[in-house]
Amino acid sequence: MPGFNFEDIDSQISRDFDSAQDAQALESLRVKYLGRRGILAELTSRIPDLPDEQRPLFGQEVNRIKRKVSELLEEKKKALGDMSAYPEAVKRQAREIDVTLPGITQELGHRHIITQVIEEICNVFVRLGFAIVEGPEIETEYNNFTALNIPLEHPSRDVFDTFYLSAGPRAEASKSKLLLRSHTSPVQIRAMKSRKPPLAIVVPGRVYRPDAVDASHSFMFHQIEGFMVDYDITFSDLKGILEFFAKSVFGGNIKMRFRPHFFPFTEPSAEVDISCIICKGKGCSVCGQKGWLEILGSGMIHPNVFRHVGYDTTKYTGFAFGMGVERLPMLRYGIDDIRLFYGSDLRFLRQF
Ligand code: PHE
Residue 219 contacts by C-beta under 8 Å, 6 or more apart in sequence? Predict the structure, then answer.
């Protein structure tokens, strides 16, 4: 072909594309070859001046060069990681991400104040060798009352009277009416039936009573039960352990007193008071001017309870106690409404 060599163009293209290292260089090559006044436009414009017999071959060569340049451009763009290799949606997203904006922090929750207090109290007993055991909130009438020496017609059932569940297949299978437990004491029965002494156990959990709800009463609240059974467990073991507990939780300076009381499942029984942590025993509105706060019920496990679980009453003795959980954080933080614990107001819950 006169004055023109396609092979020269081929090698020129190879050299150009080998040395192009970024998108800008590629763009200049596109303009150089495919642009309106580029090399290929120039070659195309020569076709009309060529002799007829040369035109087809020349045209084919021009088209080949055009394809070659286009292909090289695409390949090179991909190799340089150009976004054109990606679908349109991905490109749009990439443009919309503003890496200078602050990120979305993951908020970490924390344990509810009641859970924290339960753990704090249980840990005192765990340090003394007690094991933590839990029981179901749906109990049998037998475990909640009868096995705890609270017979059917006993007036003290009124105090613990609770929510009964309507009869159903589960109630029939259990041969005893089902109810929402009114205290954690039925777990004494479950634990003693499935183990032999010696044992030392604490039981945290929810309990239910049909009380009218107000600032100091709730139909559901939390208790922690504790009991220990072995040869020769005496009332002084109970006193020593409860004193260690009260001083760990309320402080070493508090005073304690045991007041005689009655519980059907313990004999003798006592309620335990600590000197008021608000007025230090002088008398204030929180302790009703008495200087003392009642914190739990306790006593030596009644032989009739041992008979129900099959323990030899001539061999074993034991003590038991039960306390409410909500009272402690209410005193400690001056919370005046028990309902705050069960609402989900984060402004309240975040404080603890
Ligand atoms: N179960 C009793 C209550 O709910 C507390 C208690 C437990 C008393 C164990 C004595 C022994 O009031």
Answer: 163, 208, 209, 210, 211, 213
Amino acid 199 reads L
Do residues 42 and 98 lie in contact, with contact meaning Cβ atoms separated by under 8 Å?
A: no
CA torsion, points 167, 172, 175, 181, in degrees to nearest 10?
Answer: -40
226-252 in b/e form (b: 16+ CB < 10 A) is bbbbeeebeeebbbebbeebbebbbee
Pocket of ligand 1 contains residue 183 by CB under 6 Å: yes
Residues 252/257/263/265 CA torsion (nearest 10 deg): 50
Ligand 1 centroid to residue 184 C-alpha, Å: 8
Residue 147 is encoded by which pair of tokens? Answer: 């096995």
Tokens standing for residue 89: 């949606």
Six-digit token string for 279: 């007025």
Q: pLDDT tier at 1 (50, 70, 90 boundaries)?
A: very low
Specify the ligand 1 atom closest to the Cα of 185. Answer: 1
- Following DSSP, what letter does each residue of 200-236 receive, concatenated? EEEEEEEEE--PPPBTTB-SEEEEEEEEEEETT--HH
Ligand 1 nearest-atom number relative to CA 226: 9
Q: Give the bridge partners for 286, in sequence order.
A: none
**pTM for the whole structure:** 0.70
Following CA atoms 339, 340, 344, 346 in sequence, which dihedral angle do they give, to the nearest 10 degrees?
180
Give the distance between the most distant pair of CA atoms in the chain: 129
Q: What is the DSSP string of 230-247?
A: ETT--HHHHHHHHHHHHH
In this predicted structure, the answer to whether residue 275 has a pLDDT above a threshold of 60 is yes
Q: Measured from the CB, is residue 266 less than 6 Å from ligand 1? A: yes
pLDDT digits (tens, 9 = 90+) for 312-322: 999 999 999 99
Condensed to tens digits (0 to 9), the pLDDT of residues 144-202 reads 999 999 987 777 666 667 788 876 666 566 667 899 999 999 999 999 999 999 999 99
Closest C-alpha residue for ligand 1 atom 7: 322
Of 265, 346, 253, which is closest to residue 298 (Cα–Cα)? Answer: 265
Q: Which two tokens stand for residue 108?
A: 């970490």
